[in-house]
Automatic annotation (TrEMBL):
It comes from the Bacteria. It comes from Roseivirga thermotolerans. Residues 112-197 form the PSP1 C-terminal domain. Residues 347-424 are annotated as: Disordered. This is PSP1 C-terminal domain-containing protein. NCBIfam families: RicT_YaaT_fam. Residues 356-368, 400-416 have a biased composition (Basic residues).
Length: 424
């Protein structure tokens, strides 16, 4: 697919110098994918109306009465009021019929025709005409400032025959530009048409990158602009910060409406409530997770939030309507706290331990003392006399009598005499 932003004399894509993806066709502005191109449509004759794209994504329908063999992206010369213009084929075939039905365009004689395919000479002339657009834009803005008009000039589009120019502007109120048209006609020697556009259309013609990091929807695929209100942001639990909710056009972002229907369906199961009555006090709603169906409540000035399922919230609402007040957000009646339960369980375990210990002592007293082999006193045989231990010096005998002192060796003094050492 060739680029609609211009083709050079050599037949190569000239581009629009905005560093965009011109190879994809029209710098990605309102591109169309023909999903019926590889299918055999059961029709006798091909639909003879073609959709043609002009500068910055502007599109119109034209009849192909001459039955030209056209290709998507090919430059053609079409009939316009007061002359002719050059555009590029964006769609043809049965898709055009569906598109016309979508836009409520009737097939009648008001639809103009395609003259012929653009020649090399037409492309050269159109390229020279487009070079006038930027100087004319700057000069017109200066004239607007001189006349002190409350309007913003956005873009200028010259016809391929260089006889007419369309000036696109935006303004908050009505502007009396009759004097301006006279000055512009005398300045550029052409017929002047002033066309007011909205701020969203202005952003779509200029293009840009959104906060999501992608190209603006209005400059790539979005052609119908629906009204957006702050209620869409409230339903989706978004902060009402104008700097975050506004797009490059200064209006609310169009993407706020993309998921609004899904949120509205999910909100049907969530009750509308601001506060709940419990024995601990009034719990106020702080936050709602729509898709997880969880609502956070807090008591008074507490910093902690309590997550409650929506089913439980409905139960509390039903109790409040009956005049009943539950004990807390999670329970209807008071229950033993986990701390008290653990303390009581410890006491019960201690009681059981001491009961078992006392039972063992009582059983031991009933059985009597045990011997080394584990037999009771009733099972013992006659006591054998024990062997007497040998008396030791400095100790007391088993019967309580003192032990006799140990006799010293007679030769002890003789062996230890110094005379013995000399003799040896």
């Amino acid at each position: 697919m060739s680029c609609s932003c211009g083709t050079s004399v050599a037949g190569k894509t000239a581009g629009c110098n905005n560093n965009g993806g011109c190879a994809t066709g029209g710098c990605n502005k309102l591109n169309v994918f023909d999903w019926l191109s590889n299918m055999d449509v059961p029709v006798q004759e091909k639909f003879n109306i073609v959709e043609v794209r002009f500068k910055n994504g502007r599109k119109e329908f034209f009849k192909n009465e001459n039955h030209l063999d056209l290709v998507t992206g090919e430059a053609v010369i079409v009939d316009v009021p007061g002359g002719h213009h050059l555009g590029h084929v964006s769609m043809q075939g049965e898709l055009v019929r569906l598109q016309m039905k979508k836009k409520s365009v009737e097939v009648n004689d008001e639809i103009r025709q395609i003259y012929r395919k653009a020649t090399l000479k037409d492309l050269e002339k159109f390229e020279q005409v487009r070079k006038r657009e930027m100087p004319a834009l700057y000069r017109t803005r200066n004239i607007i400032l001189e006349q002190k008009l409350e309007m913003k000039l956005t873009d200028i589009e010259f016809q391929a025959d260089n006889t007419k120019a369309t000036f696109y502007y935006s303004a908050d109120d009505r502007v009396d530009f009759r004097e301006l048209i006279k000055v512009l006609a005398a300045e550029f020697k052409i017929r002047v048409e002033m066309r007011q556009i909205s701020l969203r259309q202005e952003a779509g013609r200029l293009g840009g990158i959104g906060s999501c990091g992608r190209e603006l929807c209005c400059s790539t695929w979005l052609s119908e602009f629906k009204s957006v209100s702050t209620a869409a942001a409230r339903y989706q639990n978004l902060s009402l910060n104008p700097s975050k909710l506004s797009g490059q056009c200064g209006r609310l972002k169009c993407c706020l409406n993309y998921e609004l229907d899904t949120y509205m369906e999910a909100l049907e199961d969530i009750p509308e409530v601001t506060k709940l009555k419990t024995s601990k006090g009034e719990a106020r709603l702080q936050k709602t997770d729509i898709f997880r169906k969880i609502m956070w409540f807090s008591y008074g000035d507490e910093n902690s939030w309590h997550p409650i399922p929506t089913a439980r919230v409905k139960e509390i609402l039903a109790l409040n309507q009956k005049g009943e007040i539950p004990e807390s957000l999670t329970e209807d009646k008071a229950a033993v706290s986990p701390v008290e339960a653990t303390i009581n369980s410890d006491l019960e375990r201690m009681d059981e331990r001491f009961k078992k210990k006392d039972a063992r002592k009582k059983a031991k007293k009933r059985r009597g003392p045990r011997n080394d082999k584990g037999k009771t006193g009733a099972q013992k045989g006659p006591k054998k006399p024990e062997a007497k231990a040998a008396p030791q010096s400095g100790t007391v005998a088993a019967k309580g009598k003192p032990k006799p002192p140990r006799k010293k060796n007679r030769n002890f003094k003789k062996r230890n005499r110094p005379d013995n050492d000399q003799k040896s």
